[in-house]
Design a protein that fits this description.
By secondary structure, the chain is mainly alpha-helical. The chain has 3 helices and no strands. The protein has helices spanning 7-15, 22-50, 55-63.
Length: 70
């Protein structure tokens, strides 16, 4: 591996240094996914607030077609 591990990666490796059961691993994975999902939602909310997007904006976008012609 050419790139050194960052502090988050090292912390996760330390966490997994002790043997974890499959159930524990599933639960940890679920917690990480929930955390990252919540983080994405917070960032999207912040961006929408900064651009003054409303529910109506998103509803309008749902009706539009964003595909580009080749």
């Amino acid at each position: 591996m050419d790139t050194p591990l960052n502090s988050t990666q090292l912390e996760i490796l330390n966490l997994f240094a002790a043997n974890q059961s499959e159930e524990d691993l599933k639960e940890i994975k679920s917690l990480l996914i929930a955390y990252l999902s919540d983080k994405v939602v917070r960032e999207a909310d912040k961006a929408a607030d900064n651009k003054n997007y409303t529910v109506e904006t998103f509803e309008r976008w749902k009706q539009e077609h964003f595909r580009k012609s080749a």
